[in-house]
Amino acid sequence: MSASPRRQRRRQPALLVITGLSGSGKTHVSRALEDAGWFCVDNLPTVLVPSFADLIRRSAELRRSVLVVDVRERGFPEAFPRVYRGLKRKGGLATSLVFLEADEKTLLRRFSETRRPHPLAGREPAIEGIRAERAALGPVRKMADVILDTSRFTVHQLRDHVRERYDVRAEGRRMVVSVLSFGFRNGVPPEADLVFDARFLPNPNFVPRLRRRSGLDPAVVAYLMRQPETAAFLRRILSLVRFVLPRHEREGRSYLTIGVGCTGGRHRSVMLANAVGAAVRKRGFPVRVVHRDLKVG
C-alpha cells in the first residue's frame, strides 16, 4: 500500500524561503532558525536557487534548509516569482515562503538606529527606499504562505517566536497554539489562522468604572460574563476550536494562531483570549497567550 500524500510530504526535505522588506528582521530570523537546527544560506542569487533546491533533494543531510533572498540582488522582484513557481511545480520539496514586513515608522526607526542605508534609497531619504521596496515586492508578498509583521517584536521576542514555530528539535511534540488578542483599529494580525470578531459584544469602554481597566481585571471579566451574548459566543468559539485543533494537528501542523479581536484590543478580546487559552491548555496543547494591543495603565 502506498504512503498517503500527507506522509509523503512529511518525508520530503523542507525548504523555507525567507524574504521581505529591508529592516524587517530577516537576519534575526535566519539566525534563530539556524539555532533551531536549520541549514541557512543568505543572499543566494536567484539564478542559483533551482540548483540549491536540487542539492537539497539529493542530500541525505539537508533535511531542513533556509534560503534568505531579497532586493539586495538587482532584479530580484522581477525574477523571483518565476523561479519560486518553478520550485513548487517541480516538487520533491516541502517548500514554504515567509514574507517579513513592518510598518513605516518601525522601519525608519530601525534604519536610523543602525545607520545603514536602505538598498533602494540611493541618495534619497530612507522613506523613499522603503516605499519603493514595498511596492516592488507586492507580487512576492501575495505568493507568501506566511506573512509576519515584526513591528511589535523586540529582537528577543522575534527569535522566540521563530524558534517556537520552527524548532526542528521540537518535532514529535504537540502542536503549539498561540491565542492572540488584538484591536481591529490596529489591523488584523496577518499571522492569525483563525479570527474571531468580538466587536458585537457590550463594550466595557462605555462603562465609566471599567473604562481604564482591561480584560485582565476580574471586574471586567465579571461584567462581560454577565452578558448572555458573551457566554453564548464563548461556547461557540470553544466548540469550533475543539473541533479544528486535533484535525490541524493530524495534518502535521506544528503551530496554529487563533486571533480574537475587538475594537481597541483592551477589554473584550483580552478576556476572551484568556478564556480560549485556558480551555485549549486543558486539552493538552502547549499554549501561548499574547495581548498585542494591550497597554496596561
Description of the structure:
The protein is an alpha/beta fold. About 45% of the residues lie in helices and about 20% in strands. It has 11 helices and 9 strands. The protein has helices spanning about 5-10, 25-35, 50-60, 75-90, 105-115, 125-135, 140-145, 155-165, 220-225, 230-250, 270-280; strands at about 15-20, 40, 65-70, 95-100, 145-150, 175-185, 195, 255-260, 285-290. The model is unreliable at about 1-10 (pLDDT under 50).
Mean pLDDT over the residues? 90
Low-confidence stretches: 1-9
Shape: globular
Count every helix, treating DSSP H or I runs of 4 or more residues as helices: 11
Strand order of the largest sheet: 2-3-1-4-5
Major sheet size, sense and barrel closure: 5 strands, parallel
Quick structural summary:
The protein has 297 residues and is α/β, with parallel strands linked by helices. The chain has helices at 5-11, 26-35, 49-58, 76-90, 104-114, 126-136, 138-143, 155-166, 218-225, 228-250, 268-282; strands at 14-20, 39-42, 64-68, 94-101, 146-149, 176-183, 194-197, 255-262, 287-291. It is built from 11 helices and 9 strands.
Please tag this protein with its features.
single chain, 297 residues, alpha/beta, 5-stranded parallel sheet, 4-stranded parallel sheet, 11 helices, 9 strands, 18% strand
Mind sketching the topology for me?
Layout: H1 5-11, E1 14-20, H2 26-35, E2 39-42, H3 49-58, E3 64-68, H4 76-90, E4 94-101, H5 104-114, H6 126-136, H7 138-143, E5 146-149, H8 155-166, E6 176-183, E7 194-197, H9 218-225, H10 228-250, E8 255-262, H11 268-282, E9 287-291
Parallel strand pairs: 1-3, 1-4, 2-3, 4-5, 6-8, 6-9, 7-8
